[in-house]
């Protein structure tokens, strides 16, 4: 369950990252608060900062998976809002997480690496720019 929660959080980060790159509209309630307030991100200790030595291939895989996750996230967000009760919402969320895991793995990454890149991108503006360049190309 922790793996799915982490992936869902990374998906929301990706949605924010991809929408910024593509200038797409994204529901502000879905974005990571640290992404909305850049001053919130630096509060994390330096020792906990993720590695930023990802290969160009991994960044390309991350960008491709992120684009797919944005579509999945938008589709399942609509379905979650339409769900009638909490049990239905949880079912929709689990299905969305399964689809997101599949998208990550289909692009050649494991979930942990995808999440690590997502965290690093959030904390490293240069890395974020590299990923955005991959998205735009």
UniProtKB/TrEMBL annotation:
Residues 55-131 form the DUF4168 domain. Keywords: Signal. Residues 1-24 form the signal peptide. Residues 19-60 are annotated as: Disordered. Pfam families: DUF4168. Residues 19-51 have a biased composition (Low complexity). InterPro entries: DUF4168. This is DUF4168 domain-containing protein.
């Amino acid at each position: 369950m922790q793996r799915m929660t982490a992936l869902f959080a990374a998906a929301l980060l990706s949605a924010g990252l991809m929408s910024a790159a593509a200038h797409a509209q994204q529901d502000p309630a879905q974005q990571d608060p640290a992404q909305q307030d850049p001053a919130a991100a630096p509060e994390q200790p330096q020792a906990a900062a993720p590695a930023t030595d990802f290969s160009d291939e991994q960044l390309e895989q991350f960008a491709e998976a992120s684009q797919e996750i944005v579509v999945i996230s938008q589709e399942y967000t609509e379905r979650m809002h339409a769900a009638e009760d909490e049990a239905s919402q949880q079912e929709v969320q689990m299905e969305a997480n399964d689809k997101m895991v599949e998208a990550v793995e289909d692009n050649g990454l494991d979930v942990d690496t995808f999440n690590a890149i997502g965290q690093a991108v959030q904390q490293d503006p240069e890395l974020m720019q590299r990923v955005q360049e991959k998205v735009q190309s």
